[in-house]
Amino acid sequence: MKKIFVLDTNVLIHDPEAFLNFADNDVVLPITVIEELDKLKRGNGEIPYSARHALRLIDAFRQTGQLASGVELPSGGLLRVVIEENRHLERPSNDNKIISTAVSLARNETSLQPVILVSKDTSVRIKADALRLVTQDYLKDKTTVFQKYGNILENSAEGNGIKSVKYLKSGDKIFRVYGQDRMELIRRQRSVMHIYPKNIEQECAIDALLSTHTNVVALTGRAGTGKTLLAVAAGLHFCTKKVSADQQRSYEQVMVARPIVPLGNDIGFLPGDIKEKMYPWMQPIYDNLDVIVGTSDEPMEEKSTTYRSSDYLVESGIVHIEPLTYIRGRSLPKRYLIIDEAQNLRPLDVKTIITRCGEGTKVIFTGDLEQIDSPYLDAASNGLAFLIKRFIDEENFCYLNLKYSARSALAEQAAMLL
Questions:
Q1: Alpha-carbon distance 214 to 230, whole Å?
Q2: CA 296 – CA 290 distance, rounded (Å)
Q3: Torsion of CA 317, 257, 396, 165, to 10 degrees
Q4: pLDDT at residue 307 is higher than 50
Q5: Residue 30, preceding peptide bond in cis (omega within 30° of 0)
Q6: 3-state secondary structure (DSSP) of residue 253
Q7: Residue 199: which pLDDT band, with cuts at 50, 70 and 90?
Q8: Is the distance from CB of 128 to CB of 135 less than 8 angstroms?
Q9: Which CATH architecture describes the domain 4-136?
Q10: Alpha-carbon separation of residue 344 from 26, 66, 109, 252 (angstroms)
């Protein structure tokens, strides 16, 4: 039986083409959704872009018929925009207007189609359920693939069926496995920028970060497992190591970005220039840079002006801090690109980032899938999990889930006890 899916605004912000993904069922957009998209369409960043993209696509379908009565979608369903005056919740907020529209459609005795409200807002789903309305999250990009992979293998039989880079421990040896069971022995206890691995997971992570075989790496794990530290150290290794006159550096620059949550907010609310505005968001990156340079036995190139080590790396152009808000439209060749806290990205954001990568760029995504700050994402629907799902069978991709804290004995103790 065909169903009627009523979409909340956040679904179209998450995926501007969402209404095309409900098979041959009918899709209803309450007029409140159109009004909210209209308010969000102005400005820079991913949220205004998604609002504009969704509105343009809806307008393209409007030109094929009457949205009030329904226009046909490629999948066979109908797209409708509905104006509903009835109110089923006393407080006239936009969320309540969208819920009321869905309730009115569900209580319409002339329609036998089940009505389902689709929202990424948990409070909307709870309120709708209280009105006995069937509701669900947007399911298209939900995935649990990350739960199956990312571990260090103990025998060659495990992990078969995927071609991405995996690591196999056999006795005292570690092998890199990829493609159709191709295996290469890796060097044990390899350091990077004088940062030495504290466990086997970090040994494998260092190999993946330095390997020329992988150009997309995903590192997940809770705080303190060394994801960001190792990624930044690997990037600095490539961009600061000495090369002969007839050689070229593998990468021209380490480029680091973290999402400003919620992604798409303009950084103009903070005083100062871009660097000063970004500093609160990028403080963990500066901390890692200070740890790496402070650990090194070989000081960086002497400079007449006194800098904090992290400031020197940024001022000299070795490291570049880039707001994700403004990455759209850029081309980034020969960069060692690190996207930190990637669990706070939408699938659309991850696509935007990777499609900016030019020739010779390697991109590293790090994040904790259990610590998501965005109100409309969860462990199964965020961009990092989506990336793992789509790349898990690609030979140039490596996914590792780091489980063991390496920050300090106290941090590990707190993680276990608290």
A1: 15
A2: 10
A3: 110
A4: no
A5: no
A6: strand
A7: very high
A8: yes
A9: 3-Layer(aba) Sandwich (3.40)
A10: 31, 38, 42, 27
